[in-house]
Amino acid sequence: MSGYISEMRKLVGRRTIIQCAASIICVDPEGRVLLGRRTDNHLWGYAGGSVEIDEKIEDCARRELWEEMGLTAEELELFDINSGPEVHYVYPNGDEVSNVEIIYLCRRYHGELRRQEEEIEELRFFRREEIRLEEISPPIRPVLRKLLETESVFAPVRGIHHISMKCDTAEALEKAKDFYLNLLGCTVVREWPEGIMIDTGRGMLEIFSNGPGIPQKGALRHIAFAAEDVDAVAEKVRQAGYTVFIDPKDIVVNSRPEFHARMAFCYGPLGEEIEFFREQ
Q: Residue 173 and residue 141: Cα distance in Å, rounded?
């Protein structure tokens, strides 16, 4: 029990209190969900707990993941807010709460799994089809239900990372930069001698100046999909019969600032070039 909640219980006993909590659901590159079996009700749940006074929500979520499961979150993605009568809960010891819970997804984390023995009996990664809602702790069942219904959580790619275009002269590149940066108000992510990466606000645009053959092939260079596990996605499309013409590899872009990534390329069903891309 957190310090704040413990102090509140001294004042109100078992009576219902509003409990503000922050939680993290870790999803590994295979799309498996990390859950821990609780010691109080012997049901499964993700890492989470009550926010202390003046503690930031994100800091609370990161702290709970470290304390309960031994992992350090690198990136957080807001997933859900869990509240209402469905998550009103009475703990096995009789303490009653009305929960307001902020939940994050975390796909990038590091550390070795280590359970908090007084709260967690067992830690395990679950595949989507292995999760049974009746085995999930009651107040977080709405969150797990939403998670299981959200296809993008389990997809091997996570949307388009950037669109790559080409032009054939330095002058054309400068014209493109003027259009996107000055006219449309986009911003520069990085530059290198033959090109630029531009942030459009809802995705990125990459433009190269070394692209002859535009009248024959058009301005589109390739489509880049963000992927948590570039190697796994490349192998998946290879097994499906598509040609991977650049095998997964690490790259360093000599830009300002220097940029590290892992990438692979395949041909799509219409002959389009597709890149699977992960920033390092």
A: 52
CATH number (domain holding residue 192)? 3.10.180.10
What would the DSSP string read from start to end of 37-62?
A: EETTT--EE-EEEEPPTT--HHHHHH
Q: Which domain holds residue 102?
A: 3-154
Name the nearest CA neighbour of 46 among 80, 89, 10, 14.
80
Structure tokens at 23: 């939680």
From first to last of its 280 residues, the chain has per-residue pLDDT tens of: 568 988 999 999 999 999 999 999 999 988 999 999 999 999 999 999 999 999 999 999 999 999 999 999 999 999 999 999 999 999 999 999 999 999 999 999 999 999 999 999 999 999 999 999 999 999 999 999 999 999 989 888 888 889 888 888 888 888 888 888 887 788 999 998 889 999 988 789 898 887 665 444 556 778 888 888 999 989 988 999 889 999 999 999 888 888 899 999 998 877 778 898 998 8
CATH no. for residue 34? 3.90.79.10
DSSP string, 60-85: HHHHHHHHHH--EES--EEEEEEEEE
In single-letter form, the type of residue at position 112 comes to E
pTM: 0.78
Burial class (CB in 10 A: 0-12, 13-18, 19+), 73: buried
